Amino acid sequence: MHNKVSRSEKRNKKQHKQLEDQKRNNLTIKTIEPITDNQEIIFRDFYNGKNLLIHGLPGTGKSFISLYLALSEIENYKEYNNITIIRSVVPSRDMGFLPGNIKEKSKIYELPYQAICAELYGRGDAYEVTQTA
């Protein structure tokens, strides 16, 4: 018996796959509000067009807020299409001891950003989706 698929069935399958891909890749960022006075200053200065250099103790939200503001700017205004993250080079001294090539070795340093994206978008694959968008 010959199982032939019609053109309309192929088209329907293709459209269904495209819709599924769109759903999978469609990210909507959560709205984040500052919770401290210093975070309020960061938000205000960012929205007033100032360039920022944020420093402070670990766990105060510097990376989270910075990535949120950058991603929301891209999502809302589409003026920019990428974000460059610069991290301290100090941990890279030990990269020779990690298995894999340079790309695989740097993956470990992307973990905080993966976690932030997962929180901001409410899905575990958000960081990877933002890489391909």
Layout of helices and strands:
Blueprint: H1 7-25, H2 37-47, H3 62-77, H4 102-121, H5 126-132
Helix pairs in contact: 3-4
Rough outline? extended
Return Rg in Å.
Answer: 20 Å
How much of the sequence lies in strands comes to: under 5%
**Portion of residues in helices?**
40-55%
Q: Low-confidence segments, ≥5 residues, pLDDT <50? A: none
Oligomer: single chain
- Give a count of the beta strands, DSSP E runs of length 2 or more: 0
Q: What sequence of helices (H) and strands (E) makes up the elements?
A: HHHHH
Alpha-carbon distance between the two ends: 43 Å
Q: In terms of structural class, how would the helical and strand content be classed?
A: mainly alpha
The main β sheet shows up as: none
**How many individual domains?**
1
**Discrete helix count:** 5
Instruction: Report the average pLDDT across residues.
Output: 81
Explain what this protein looks like in three dimensions.
- This protein has five helices and no strands.
- By secondary structure, the protein is mainly α.
- The chain has one domain (7-132).
- Helix 3 packs across helix 4 (102-121).
- The N and C termini lie far apart (43 Å).
- The mean pLDDT is 81.
